[in-house]
């Protein structure tokens, strides 16, 4: 299992220090919430569904990452057993997904849910099942994937929602794990290399270069980035029905703050170090790129906020010009903060792209926007103060950009 050892060292560090750090954080999180006495009534199927879906989603993103395809290219160039590398590859990434991502969510649910031992063990089986499910589905040919995935998903969903107890769910997960393991033993390791790495190069020719068009093509050509934005749009449709049940204060701004959490498009610079080095090396490109990047995120946030406002009007009503102005301010301010944070403090030392999307830094901008939302909810006149501050902020950036362009021409 030298291949598994090499992959694990790439993912967890030379001395596997990330395993200890991640497990320690999970244990601290569990005992902190458990000792605080926080208890929430959660149905068992929610626990099983969360463990399965979250682990499967993270595993799919991890094995489809472009970063690890380049890192482990050498493994596919050396002689290896047909099944040995596949199992080493899948099990290493499954361990990485469980330890660094899924255990945090499970620790949170275990601490506040008041589960028994059987339910906790079943949830762990669901998480393992989710990882192997994602790997098995990822390796299937397109012609066979969707029918089998539909049947497999229906069986897992039936077990989650209809299982009378933890024992039945545990048996269903065990059967699913065995099936996935058998399929993976018959899978060639090159399936992961070809599916996650090769892509036809398309050249676009135009008279002028546009950073905005480049970012738009980058978004549409990366499935994970596009799916996250689509999922956020879907969440924007549901959020008014959730916040509409909270009476007593204006909670619409809270939705704008939550919807600013579009992590993938806010980490484009961190995710492409080569492009970042080129931008920092070329004179005059920093301000030009950041301006277009800010406009790109602003358009994405405005689209999501627009969907949120339409659904809010349909569910709760009361959307006027003040609410439209608030949506624009939230979209613009969050885009400015995201670009500034990404340019001044890009993320380093990440292993796969999912590390970027689940880094704690992703919560900084939404946290600031949530504070602003709280102020606006309590003091509606603060919208006009914020508008004045935003005009000064944008004018300052425009003045700085024009000054640099004039100095460059001189």
UniProtKB/TrEMBL annotation:
Domain of life: Bacteria
Entry's transmembrane regions: 20-39, 45-63, 84-111, 117-138, 150-183, 225-244, 293-315, 321-344, 364-387
Presence of the UniProt keyword Phosphoprotein in the record: no
Keywords, in A-Z order: Membrane, Transmembrane, Transmembrane helix
The protein's name in its UniProt record: Uncharacterized protein
Organism: Ruminococcus difficilis
């Amino acid at each position: 299992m030298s291949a598994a050892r090499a992959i694990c060292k790439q993912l967890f560090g030379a001395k596997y220090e990330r395993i200890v750090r991640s497990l320690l954080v999970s244990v601290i999180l569990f005992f902190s919430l458990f000792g605080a006495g926080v208890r929430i009534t959660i149905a068992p199927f929610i626990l099983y569904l969360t463990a399965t879906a979250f682990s499967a989603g993270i595993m799919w993103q991890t094995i489809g990452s472009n970063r690890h395809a380049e890192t482990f290219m050498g493994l596919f160039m050396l002689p290896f057993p047909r099944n040995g590398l596949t199992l080493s590859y899948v099990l290493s990434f499954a361990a990485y997904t469980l330890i660094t991502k899924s255990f945090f969510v499970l620790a949170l649910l275990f601490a506040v849910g008041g589960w028994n031992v059987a339910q906790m063990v079943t949830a762990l089986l669901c998480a393992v099942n989710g990882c192997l499910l994602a790997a098995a589905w990822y390796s299937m040919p397109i012609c066979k994937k969707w029918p089998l995935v539909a049947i497999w998903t229906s069986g897992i969903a039936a077990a989650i929602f209809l299982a009378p107890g933890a024992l039945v769910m545990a048996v269903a997960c065990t059967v699913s794990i065995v099936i996935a393991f058998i399929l993976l033993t018959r899978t060639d390791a090159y399936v992961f290399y070809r599916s996650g790495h090769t892509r036809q190069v398309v050249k676009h020719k135009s008279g002028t270069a546009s950073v905005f068009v480049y970012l738009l093509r980058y978004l549409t050509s990366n499935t994970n980035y596009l799916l996250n934005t689509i999922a956020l749009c879907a969440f924007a449709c549901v959020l008014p029905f959730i916040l509409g049940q909270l009476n007593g204060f204006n909670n619409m701004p809270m939705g704008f703050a939550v919807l600013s959490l579009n992590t993938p498009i806010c980490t484009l610079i961190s995710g492409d170090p080569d492009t970042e080095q080129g931008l920092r090396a070329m004179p005059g490109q920093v301000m030009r790129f950041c301006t277009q990047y800010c406009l790109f995120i602003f358009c994405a946030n405005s689209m999501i906020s627009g969907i949120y406002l339409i659904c809010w009007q349909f569910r709760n009503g009361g959307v006027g010009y003040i609410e439209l102005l608030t949506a624009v301010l939230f979209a613009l301010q969050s885009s400015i903060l995201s670009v500034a944070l990404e340019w001044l403090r890009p993320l380093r030392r990440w292993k796969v792209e999912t590390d970027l999307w689940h880094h704690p830094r992703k919560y900084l901008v939404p946290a600031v926007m949530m504070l602003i939302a709280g102020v606006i909810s309590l003091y509606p006149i603060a919208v006009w103060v914020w508008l004045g501050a935003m005009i000064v902020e944008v004018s300052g950036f425009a003045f700085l950009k024009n000054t640099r362009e004039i100095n460059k021409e001189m």
